[in-house]
Amino acid sequence: MDKSTFEERKVVINGSMHGSLRHDSAHKHVTGTADYIDDIPEPAGLLHGALGLSDRAHAEIAGIDLSAVRAYPGVVWVFTGADVPGVNDTSSNGMHDEPLLAETKAEFHGQPIFAVIAETRDAARRAARLAKIDYRDLPHWSDIDGALANGGPLVYEPMTLKRGEPETEMANAKHRIKAQMRIGGQEHFYLESHIAMAIPGEDDEVAVWSSTQHPSEIQHIVGHVLGIPSNAVTVNVRRMGGGFGGKETQGNQFAALAAVAAKKLGRAVKFRPDRDEDMSATGKRHDFLVDYEVGFDDDGRIHAVDATYAARCGFSSDLSGPVTDRALFHADSSYFYPHVHLVSKPLKTHTVSNTAFRGFGGPQGMVGGERMIEEIAYALGKDPLEIRRANFYGQPGSGRTLTPYHQEVTDNIINRIVDELEQTSDYQARRKAIIEFNRSSRFIRKGIALTPVKFGISFTMTAFNQAGALVHVYQDGSIHLNHGGTEMGQGLYTKVAQVLADSFQVDIDRVKITATTTGKVPNTSATAASSGSDLNGMAAFDAGRQIKERLVAFAVEKWGVGAEEVQFLPNRVRVGDTEIPFPDFIKQAYFARVQLSAAGFYKTPKIHWDRKAGRGTPFYYFSYGAACSEVSIDTLTGEYLIDRADILHDVGRSLNPAIDIGQVEGAFVQGMGWLTTEELWWDAKGRLRTHAPSTYKIPLASDRPKIFNVRLAEWSENTEATVGRSKAVGEPPFMLPISVLEALSMAVASIADYRVCPRLDAPATPERVLMAVERLKGM
């Protein structure tokens, strides 16, 4: 192989959108040189903000004395909701139920009531504790049971999904089980807490640096609160230190507070709460109470399902409507329900308003669906995998492809995924060995489970499924890329740059990835719903297509060749028999006055949704996966180890296998934490007591499975026209560790010889495992 051939292969690999390129900031992450908002050199005269928080769960605010706060050394300004120049509201859905600063009523312990602006962060925080607030306490409830006992107040209109005749067909089922499951919430625990810095400009202008997944919403909310148009607000986001959904709407208040103070005082202002304040004042994953009834036959095939998914939503609506909707969308997991009735209950509680979290309600819905499979398996004395197979969605024409929301599942590969993983994980032999081990082991019991994932991809609000991108090609052949997606460590910037480099057939280092800003790409959607690469990659591809079409037209005219004779090759362009280096070709195009800039746009096709009717096609396609997990529990303490996990996950034709595998591994560990160790707890006064690492336990590196085998389904290719025929990877693998919960359940079930479903609630903490073991000992 000569040098030129080697160099050509190197360029193709570096520019490929299917290559395992490193994350663009990986070296900066590990060396500490990646700039986050708190690393930006502080502007001259920077002020710092702190929050004054409610210490009541539900009370009228009878009076506020802030004189001691104002008198504290270094304090520049103290303001309340009455000082907001525009509208004192940061709600993201137009329901106007989330004040920036509470004025007349405190609706959860930790709700911001006032803000302090001071010369130093320490002074602002110390001063904020000196307020004297008089309250008239009101009745409060902080959990689902309390909400139901008080009439079940809702923050959003519930949704119903129905197909078939579940009312009558449930009675016709050979077997019926009716039970309940509790599914806990989860703190996002991003490494970088919420933070925002605002710098005032001339006239009504303000620039905001925010750790947010939704710059356009920050722009809108800041304009709303200040009473100025969106064109006066510029929001910038280079990267976040994690988001996981917690920065989709919850950054609104910090950005708005910083902007209000900056415009009032004419100085830059930064808000950065500490971990305790961040955990107390910002929303979390919704916890659910699932009441379910399932009818089935002797073979374990489901005949009818009736389930209600009640959620703790907090004091305001936030994203609770869409979150509980998506829980219903995934209550079927990977299974066909011939007759089904599903209802959501987005309940109001006097706690912080819960919000988006990786999976967006889908994991809670799926856990409920898998519990029903587990119930059937233990009732019939069968392997749960056998029951899963009996109920999987079928292929087109099977009569088993219609979801509860009346969308046809036309791309089903779950059988192949599960079959392949069953073989590669040696599931059957290991399950047999585990059952044998449990017969003779006195204190240690083992469990194994293989569970599937089917996850719908798209925002269920159809309008959000759009994206824009801005691409400039400069005279020297370098390329500038900007789009509406945000980077929170998931590798989105790298993937979209790969798409563009592949389009022009240039080396990836020719593409400059620039910070997301509302000043370049307007009206963007949140980087959420696993749609970042799908939407922004296609928008960037569209921008590149426009520029390439102009370049081809230029070459046709200049060289007198047909369009088919113009080819973009690695780092060069072939025009007829002539090959021109890419930079030289671009320089010639510039002198011929070819426009070398384009705004790309993409909207997801085929999707539509009628929420009121409970019918439509809310998802463009489905992502699939499966995991097989093995655990060991100590029946004396309830403690356990994750011995092994084998994963096979579907990302279509991967845009970047290295990044995608990392996403699968991270999602599995994060989901495992949700289902095992991460427990949120409020006391009788409505105070969140698990508000710091000392009391809230995320999984550590030592908690990962001791044997951890992760593979992508390399044979898979998206049947829909996505970018590079890839599939989303952000959220779907989060549900793979349901296999861990199911494996723990099997280990506990061995106490009663697998005759009883242990009905482990989530999170399955060691305490819950121990209580389940003790309960089954008496059976």
TrEMBL record:
Which molecular-function annotation in GO is an example for this chain?
A: xanthine dehydrogenase activity
Residues forming the Aldehyde oxidase/xanthine dehydrogenase a/b hammerhead domain are 31-139
User: Pfam families from the entry?
Assistant: Ald_Xan_dh_C, MoCoBD_1, MoCoBD_2
Q: What keywords tag this UniProt record?
A: 2Fe-2S, Iron, Iron-sulfur, Metal-binding, Molybdenum, Oxidoreductase
Enzyme class, UniProt record, top EC level: oxidoreductase
Q: List the InterPro entries.
A: Ald_Oxase/Xan_DH_a/b, Ald_Oxase/Xan_DH_a/b_sf, Ald_Oxase/xanthine_DH-like, AldOxase/xan_DH_MoCoBD1, AldOxase/xan_DH_MoCoBD2, AldOxase/xan_DH_Mopterin-bd_sf, Xanthine_DH_Mopterin-bd_su
Q: What is its EC number?
A: 1.17.1.4
* Stated family: Belongs to the xanthine dehydrogenase family.
PANTHER family (UniProt xref): ALDEHYDE OXIDASE 1-RELATED (PTHR11908:SF132), XANTHINE DEHYDROGENASE (PTHR11908)
Q: What's the name of the protein?
A: Xanthine dehydrogenase molybdopterin binding subunit
| Species per Swiss-Prot/TrEMBL record | Rhizobium lusitanum
